[in-house]
Amino acid sequence: MIMRKNIFIVIVFFVFVSLFGCTKGHIDPNLDGGKIVFKFAHYIDGQPLVTDTMKYINAAGNLYSVSEVKYFISDIVLHSLDGTDQFIYKWKDIQYVDEALPATNTWNVFDKIQPGDYDSISFTFGITKAKNLSFMYVNPPEVNMAWPDLLGGGYHYLMINGFWKNTTNQRTPFNFHMGIGQIYIGLNNTGAITGFVQNYFPVSLKNSSFSIHKGETKEIQIIMNIDSWFKTPHVYDHNYWGGAIMQNQTAMQMAKENGFDVFTIGGIH
Amino acid sequence: MKRLALTCIIFCFGLVFTTNGSAQNIQDTLQLKEVVIFGKSPIYNINPIILKSEIELSPVRDIGDYLRSIPNVSGLRKGGTGIDPVVRGFRFSQVNVILDGGIKIEGGCPSRMDPVTSHIEPEEIERIEIFKGPFNLRYGPALGGTINLITTKPKPYSKFELHASALYGFESNWNGQREHLTLFGGNKSIYFNLSGGFKNYGSYSDGNDLKVKSSFSKYNYSGNIGFAINKNQSLMLSVIESHGRDVSYPTLPMDELSDDTRILSANYKAINISEKITSLTVSAYRSQVKHIMDNSQRPNYATMQALSAVDAVNFGGSSEMVFRLNPTALLNVGADYENITKDGTKTMTMIMTMGGVKSTSTKRSNLWLDSKIENVGFFAELKKSFNLFQLTASLRGDYNQATSGDTLQIVKYNTDYFTNKRTQYLNLSGSLGLNASITKKLSVNLSFGRAVRSPNMLERYIKFLVVGYDNYDYLGNPSLKPEKNLQTDLTFTYEEKQFGKVYLNGFYSFVNDYISGLRVPTAVAKPSTSGALGVKQFSNIDLAVFRGIELGYSNMLFDKLLTSVTASYTDAYFPYTTKYLITNGQVVDEAELKNDPLPEIPPFESTLSLAYRMFHDKLIPKMSLRVVASQHNTSDAYYEPSTPGFSVLNFSLNYKPVRYVNFAAGVNNLFNKAYYEHLNRKIVGSTLNLFEPGRSFFFNLIVTI
Question: Does the CB of A24 have a partner CB in chain B at under 8 Å?
Fold first, then answer.
């Protein structure tokens, strides 16, 4: 009798223990769509930017150098030939780009791209009002783009920091910053603020058509031509606007209007 | 000799497991073989009971820390104190931690700086009961286990007596000291105790002699008064207060400025009411925790200041009646009620300097707003003996509802991530256990249980805070479904006077709708805590599987040498889960994983303890060797790193020269080993590990008159 009981116990325990053990494994990711990678580059006068070198001359004739280039683009849309648009939003809809941080100059897009033909790419330069909320970034590097609540809040759209030689040939710092603009009650941006101006603007990239197939990855280079911020349609003169424009809506409006052709496609392959 | 051999075999079996895959460990282990080893008191059962006498002689700062010495009970360390217990890989609300059989405490800190165990000082504890598995349903729905902390209560005396007990403890590594004083006494009608204590610990040094910012101060006091209404009825009124100050948590984005806890309770008990009704217990309680934390000791305070304040109240009560149906059957029937309310705010101030001009922006947001959870439970437990069998059957029903005053709504791209709504659940739990005495020496216990727990306050309503799981901000989910655990345990126990006692347990558990954090796209939500890596939202995962083995053996060698060996192993995995692929810190794709381990599952470990009784138990030297395996069975989906194994040797000496005085001294981590537990959190904002304390000498002096 005891022998039977012992056999029973051994069997029960063996069954119990045998339930242990399983195989770890991966299931292949969904390969139904394609993938895209955006690469961001920064040029002046058709050549890659060389920072901290006083060798560039803008349309106004200012000799200048660039130390830092930081900006946000958001809400990228791929426009397909059949009239349907694919919005890039599944993981991230705002990209921070910092010339000095290589990791930010590449955006491996999470979204799976519907195979097909696309005739253009568009995006918002900066961040739309609905999304540009104070405290939405609390970690570097994005947090360093914070725009004071007093001046409209949210985050800078753009920071280009550098130096130019002023009329007395002195090396003078400039902070070419864009964000939410202010309307002041007094002249020359003085007195109380009576309203704010959203300075983000849409960008449509020329020559940005491409085709993508199932399982294919496309690398799309987007170039910011920094010199274009200072020409067409307006010639921007550092000697006239001075070193800082955060509280000068007229200057930021000029930058905004100059921004339409700042971005170009460097290549799609 | 056979017993000595068996002890060695079991421990060596543990070592083989433990050192598997770690060349470093094999070397360590071989070196330690030459050391004479003594140990802690043995753990005799799968569901152990720890007595005050064991706790007060240990250099214990925190109950959660002490519980880590129990087989298959581990802890999540975030700083010097407030270690969060983990039972067989189940954690947080999966483990039902209660006080005095029914008092619930809602921790104030959203980052779990203050788990329930942190609100009661070890000096207040009379005993700790641990029930593993979902089988004990008397104290509430217990998914993975129940920890019942029973505080010291006064007892009546035949005539008036007054006594006092004082404790002083010191630990060298922390330069830490604790003091505790208790007055107790009374007569046969009224009896009482009054106690108070103070702890002040500095930062400890790890085995590399590096300081770990882990200092804290605590003070507490309590009072109990009992009334013997007649020989069968009594009433106990209690108040407990504990206060924490300046508690450092290097793994969290903030430190605790203050934590103030007050627990009020009343307990009525009647016994021998009739031939059939053996007892009636009615109790009520109210616990309140006020918790304030900030980042004023952190480097980023100059640019980003954060302060959180939380007020949590839990009140409720229970009643239980025990019926003796016949000489072999007992039936417990009862009901309980719990009401939790929680409010909390977070204030953030961003300090910017633009062109030499400083400007500040301040944002105040709710962590919880008028959040409320109510739970009404009914339970019945039958214990019945049939010849060689003992049957235990439990049933429990819980009605759980939750509401919140939140106005937050996150609906992005046609997906509803967070919308406040009232939820109601009816949860049914049950268990069935059969213990069979196969022979006089061998018994087998087979248990089945299903327990269901509703989501807690944090899982339902927290908004954007690092909550102590990892370095992500967490977002609650009002739509969460309850977690359900279906588990079976099989335990063999063999006991014989000459041989000693050995138990072997295996458990297997299926958890449906397992609640865990899943990453939320940055397009939907971005972290609002400085240093947080992203946002995760509490979500239900279809299935998680837990399984494990526990082994214990204890005996008395040569009538003087008490030995025990324990070993435990838990394995847990998700049959299917999603991994987000990361390149350059960006989530670039996702992949489905099969049988991926759950994160934060403790590795295999084994402890050998020896104690030698000398001079009629007046002097007892003890040594224990704890060997922990490396943990390579880590979660791919959570990018969980593996951890190396380690072994730690502790030594202590208990001396009781007279019955009024008890003295303990010793050294923990004798060889100053630099090690960290697999469950220790990472230093915030980094991948650096939080190391355990290095060598620490201690002594405790207890005087009772």
Answer: yes
Q: pLDDT tens digits for B381-390?
A: 999 999 889 9
- Which residue of A1, A139, A143, A175 is the best one to mutate when testing the B interface, meaning the one whose CB has the most B CBs within 10 A? A139
Task: Note down the domain range covering B573.
Answer: 2-704
Asked if B70 and B51 touch (Cβ cutoff 8 Å), the reply is no
Distance of CA A95 to the CA centre of its chain: 3
Q: Looking at residue B32, what is its pLDDT?
A: 31
Taking CA atoms, B155 is separated from B50, B99, B241, B654, in Å, by 20, 18, 21, 27
Q: What is the mean pLDDT of residues A145-161?
A: 94
pLDDT in tens, B415-474: 899 988 899 999 999 999 999 999 999 999 999 999 999 999 999 999 888 886 678 999
Whose CA is closest to B472, among B417, B408, B528, B416? B528
Q: Which residue has the higher pLDDT, B530 or B61?
A: B61
Where b means 16+ CB within 10 Å and e means fewer, B230-247 reads: eeeebebebebbbbbeeb
Adjacent-strand bridge partners of B442:
B494
- Cβ <8 Å between A16 and B490: yes
Whole-number pLDDT of residue B16: 44
Give the pLDDT confidence of A91-137 residue by residue, as tens digits.
999 999 999 999 999 999 999 999 999 999 999 999 999 999 998 99
Q: Tell me the per-residue pLDDT of B477-504, one tens digit each, with 9 for 90 and over.
A: 999 999 999 999 999 999 988 888 999 9
Q: How many domains does chain B have?
A: 1
User: Average pLDDT of A21-44?
Assistant: 78
Among B303, B526, B592, the residue with its CB nearest the CB of A27 is B592
| Three-class DSSP labels, B383-405 | EEEECCEEEEEEEEEEEEEEECC
Domain with residue B415: its CATH number is 2.40.170.20
Select the residue of A9, A108, A139 nearest B588 (Cβ to Cβ): A108
* DSSP-assigned beta bridge partners for residue B265: B238, B285
Q: Is A108 in contact with B413 (Cβ distance < 8 A)?
A: no
Q: Report which of B486, B547, B541 is spatially closest to residue B516, judged by C-alpha positions.
A: B541
**Cα B385 from Cα B332, distance rounded (Å):** 15
* Helix, strand, coil % over all residues of chain B, rounded to 5: 10, 60, 30
Q: How far is CA A1 from the centre of its chain?
A: 78
As a whole number of angstroms, the distance between CA B542 and CA B270 comes to: 45
**For residue B318, which amino acid is it?**
S
Mean pLDDT of B343-369: 86
- CB count within 10 Å of CB B225 equals 16
Contacts of residue B573, defined as CB under 8 A and 6 or more positions apart, other chains included, come to A22, A24, B544, B545, B595, B596, B597, B598
How far is residue B578 CA from its own chain's centroid? 29
- Per-residue pLDDT reduced to its tens digit, A231-247: 989 999 999 999 999 99
Separation between Cα atoms, residue B477 and residue B195, nearest integer Å: 42
By C-alpha distance, which of B384, B387, B418 is closest to B404? B418
Closest CA to A98 of A69, A76, A121: A69
- Can you give the pLDDT at residue B300? 85
Contact B700, B168 (CB under 8 A): yes
Which H or E run includes B25? helix B23-32
* Phi then psi dihedrals of residue A120, to 5 deg: -165, 165
Distance CA B222, CA B124 (A): 8
Task: Write the DSSP symbol of residue A116.
Answer: E
SS3 B125: strand
Beta strands B442-453 and B605-612, pairing class: unpaired
Q: Does B352 touch chain A (CB under 8 A)?
A: yes
Is B628 within 8 Å of B649 (Cβ atoms)?
no
